[in-house]
Specification:
The chain is an alpha+beta fold and 463 residues long. Helices cover 25% and strands 25% of the residues. The chain has 3 domains: 3-233, 3-Layer(aba) Sandwich (Rossmann fold); 249-298 and 408-457, Jelly Rolls (Sandwich), CATH 2.60.120; 301-399, no CATH class. The two termini are 36 Å apart.
Length: 463
């Protein structure tokens, strides 16, 4: 990036800096990766107009570093820079959950939200880190910004030769070698905040501890710096090739690209998600069929709410619940008792509000309910983690609850599109097998719904 363009970026970001008088950012040494692999999201933001407001979904995910307040500054900056975009921003970070734990919760925290962009940072194992990134890239069309660690201590110089042997610190192994390779493999953006953070410290004669409130968590100035470094990374590259992302999401306009015929609308597509965009006006309803089946017949078109928290913590008592048979929409309760000292073993009864009593299990054993609607691995209970935090065992008959919720509509009735500039979207199906499908909408009583377009999503990576 040339200096003139860089100064323009600084000018855009300047009005949204913190009111606190912190030393200014240091111009980056290398901007070659700025904006790379996030141009679908940035294009949606940049092409939003008062007449056509794109909906852009952004998720911040990770552990306590991500759970800080800095992301709010980034959200405010995007809203100010792109006022015509309809931003949907959430932060679902779980403090204390390293990659080994967070890879389990991603299934219901990230995948159903189906973001356009995930801003991600986590510590922990590089194997589980990669598994988490693969899960996001194979189940959604989301672009991902992998944030390198901030400089909670001075980084070592990059070592030569076999980094496993020559690079001393684990964080430097991760940031110099392992994370960039994961980003390259899955075509994710890699934000080099670690080195830019260190450059800021050196320029202003600061020590790492000066931007921390403990050994690792940023203080207010650190929160400000983390936001500013990401804000300047989020740039539009109008001349960047679109090959990487332009075929991942396809919008089919009704009446132009597809048409109703004898009360039926048929579209072939490839991917795992279908949205319906309502048109202004009144209309009827349509039955939804995918490959001849109701969306509710696909086991992947369901998710669960985050289970209730474990005692002594803020984290879910169960990290992952899956199923072997198609679920039904209901609330589940696991009643747990007789905890051993480690809290890794205990007894529990399972009951569903529709299914009823559905088996008994032990925390140390793999569990599959008789109905096939609940399966839990031993590693997915969090009571031992809570015991380590609180130094106390859970009370007897402690209950964990979660709900099964739909990612589909078997019958589509167009909601009222009150503002034609905004997208009024309904999820017809999310969680289909990522492949070729045929969608059919069959008008009820011969009166099609007011439908503007259909949108199909094809994740770039296969499971």
């Amino acid at each position: 990036m040339n200096r003139a363009l860089w100064m323009m970026v600084l000018a855009l970001c300047a009005p949204f800096a913190s009111a606190a008088e912190y030393p200014p950012l240091v111009p980056p040494k290398d901007t070659a990766e700025y904006g790379k692999h996030i141009q679908r999201t940035m294009s949606l933001l940049a092409t939003s107009t008062p007449e056509h407001r794109n909906t852009v979904r952004i998720l911040f995910y990770g552990q306590s570093i991500t759970a800080g307040t800095w992301h709010q500054r980034v959200e405010a900056d995007l809203k100010a820079r792109f006022p015509n975009a309809d931003l949907v921003v959430e932060n679902r970070a779980i403090s204390g959950f390293a990659s080994q734990l967070l890879v389990r919760t991603t299934l219901y925290d990230v995948i159903p939200f189906y973001p356009d962009l995930v801003v991600f940072h986590v510590y922990g194992s590089h194997q589980e880190y990669e598994a988490l990134i693969k899960l996001i890239r194979s189940r959604t069309t989301s672009e991902v910004i992998m944030q390198s660690d901030h400089a909670s201590k001075w980084p070592e110089p990059k070592a030569e030769g076999n980094f496993w042997q020559t690079q001393k610190e684990w964080e430097d192994k991760m940031n110099y070698f392992l994370l960039p390779e994961i980003a390259k493999k899955y075509r994710c953006a890699f934000q080099p905040q670690r080195w830019e953070w260190a450059d800021y410290l050196k320029e202003h004669k600061l020590e790492p501890k000066d931007l921390l409130k403990d050994n690792v968590h940023p203080n207010e100035q650190g929160q400000w710096l983390m936001a500013e470094l990401l804000k300047r990374f989020l740039i539009v590259l109008p001349n960047e090739p679109k090959d990487e992302w332009q075929d991942l999401v396809r919008t089919v306009e009704v009446g132009k690209d597809a048409a109703w015929k004898d009360g039926k609308l048929t579209v072939e597509f490839e991917g795992n998600r279908v949205l319906a965009l309502a048109a202004p006006g009144e209309g009827g309803s349509a039955e939804v069929r995918i490959d001849g089946k109701k969306p509710s017949e696909f086991p992947g078109c369901y998710t669960i709410t985050r289970p209730t928290t474990a005692p002594g913590g803020w984290f879910p008592a169960i990290k992952r619940v899956v199923w072997d048979k198609t679920p039904v929409l209901e609330e589940w309760t696991a009643t747990c008792r007789n905890f051993d000292e480690s809290c890794k073993d205990f007894e529990f009864d399972l009951s569903g509000s529709v299914t009823g009593a559905d088996g008994k299990g032990r925390g140390k054993d793999k569990f599959a309910s008789p109905s096939g609607r609940v399966m839990i691995e031993p590693q997915d209970w969090s009571f031992d983690y809570g015991k380590n935090m609180s130094k106390k065992k859970p009370p007897e008959n402690f209950q964990v609850k979660w709900k099964v919720v739909p990612l589909y509509e078997d019958v589509y009735t167009a909601p009222k599109a009150a503002d034609p500039a905004r997208e009024t979207a309904t999820v017809l199906a999310t969680g289909l097998p990522n492949g070729k499908h045929t969608l059919e909408l069959i008008a009820k009583d011969g009166k099609p719904p007011a439908l503007k377009a259909l949108r199909f999503y094809k994740p770039p990576v296969q499971d």
